[in-house]
Amino acid sequence: MFNFIVMCAFNVLISTRTMNKLQKQVYKDRIVKLARLKSTGPPADLAFRLEISERSVKRFVREIRDEGTDIRYCQTRMSYVTEKN
């Protein structure tokens, strides 16, 4: 079991390092869509759902903000949220 967890973590680490622009955009689009629905969950849960690291989730959210989308984490809803269509 431990080896399986280590291999999964290693695959996630390697896959995020070799991600191309299209793959990154797909992740960002999914995060924005879930944020509009207010159903991302906490960053750790979102990372698990997307099969990427929590650090990658936070980096993508920062990039989404830099691109002009008003996305923020709502403590009450325990989700990233956005109002932009």
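Next protein, fold it too.
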Amino acid sequence: MSEPLYLISIGLIFGTILAIFAMKYLSSARQAQARIAIENSYRELAQKEVATQAENAASLSAIRSELTEIKARLGAIEKILKEVE
């Protein structure tokens, strides 16, 4: 076996091993980036959900206060109607 052929074959073996490790590293790096992007989108979704829940709580509180006011008015109207009878 000639020396150039020997060096080329050893170079191909080491090059293949190096290429495999490089692809594995790049794959892991892209998976980590994708995982970070997914976590960020979940975090944004959770923040939006918290804001929506706060708005819903405020709306529910306003509805309850209006309902209490309506009940008070209805009670006053019933009292007036009973007095009229």
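About the second fold: The chain has one helix and no strands.
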